[in-house]
Amino acid sequence: MTDIEDLQTVLRASCDVTSAGGGIVTGTVVAGASALSCGCRGGPSGENPQAAERGDQAQPRACGGCSRARPAECLSPITTSVFELFKVGIGPSSSHTVGPLVACRRFVRSLAVEGKLRRVSRVQVQLCGSLGLTGLGHYTNKAVALGLTGVAPADVDPDDVEPLLAQVAATGKLTIGFPGEPPECKGSYHEIGFDEVRDVTLHAEELPLHPNGMICRALDDQDDLLIETTY
Predict the structure, then answer these.
(1) Coil, helix or strand for 36?
(2) What residues contact residue 202 under an 8 Å CB cut-off, 6+ apart?
(3) Stretch 23-52: mean pLDDT
(4) Cα–Cα nearest to 150, from 122, 188, 121, 198
(5) Confidence of residue 38 (pLDDT cuts 50, 70, 90)
(6) How large is the average pLDDT for residues 66-95?
(7) For 194-198, which contacts have Cβ atoms below 8 Å and span 24 or more sequence positions?
(8) Are 120 and 226 a contacting pair, CB within 8 Å?
(9) Among 18-32, 77-91, 126-140, which range has the highest average pLDDT?
(10) Is residue 145 predicted with pLDDT exceeding 60?
(11) pLDDT, tens digit, 9 for 90 and up, residues 147-158
(12) Mean pLDDT of 156-176
């Protein structure tokens, strides 16, 4: 027998053994233009043995254990684009750099949407768990400041990052806002006091739902809480 015939025999035998135990095995083997669907006991191409005994014409059938199974000739190829797998953004880490940037960007968007942006005096960001332990090495602190300005990861110019952060450190001021949709957010910007050592804090303890967690808080000029969001 050919290699594919050997593999088909093994798959059918495993289906028979599992079916006898009350379970169902599902698998698909594709060789060139042909395919074998397993998961129900039967002959080649999923032939129904009961139909053969009655003299009915054998018809391929999908696996009885999967409601979405279809004959192999109906299957479509995967059409995922590389642009769905890879995203443009600053590094060195998607989880520790791009993720916190996006979180802070969404935070200032919520401030703009709720009409509280102009009332913000300062923002506190707590980096928890892995973000707190390795955040400085992954430039999470820098990503936080960038995200609060409303810039999207794909729009960050690496040449502009260090000059912007140097200016923020020298002046103690950061312009926060959100440039995009919805319409009420467009052009909404507000200058706040910002000290990275004071406003971006590192915490080794993890938040309950994820090792890479962070808490963003917006405070008014009386240090009263306006919004708190956990990401």
Answers:
(1) strand
(2) 127, 131, 132, 133, 135, 136
(3) 41
(4) 188
(5) very low
(6) 67
(7) 194/122, 194/123, 194/145, 194/148, 194/168, 196/141, 196/145, 196/168, 196/169
(8) yes
(9) 126-140
(10) yes
(11) 999 999 889 998
(12) 94
Instruction: Determine contact, residues 21/41, Cβ cutoff 8 Å.
Output: no
Output the pTM of the full model.
0.62
Other Cβ atoms less than 10 A from the Cβ of 77: the count is 5
Token pair in block for residue 150: 């409303």
Query: Are 98 and 87 contacting, i.e. CB atoms less than 8 angstroms apart?
Result: yes
Q: How many residues does the chain have?
A: 231
Closest by Cα among 72, 71, 105 to 90: 105
Helix or strand (DSSP H, E) at 123: strand 122-129
Tokens of 45: 């191409």
Contact 220, 226 (CB under 8 A): yes
> What is the enclosing helix (H) or strand (E) of 201?
strand 200-203
- pLDDT for 31 equals 37
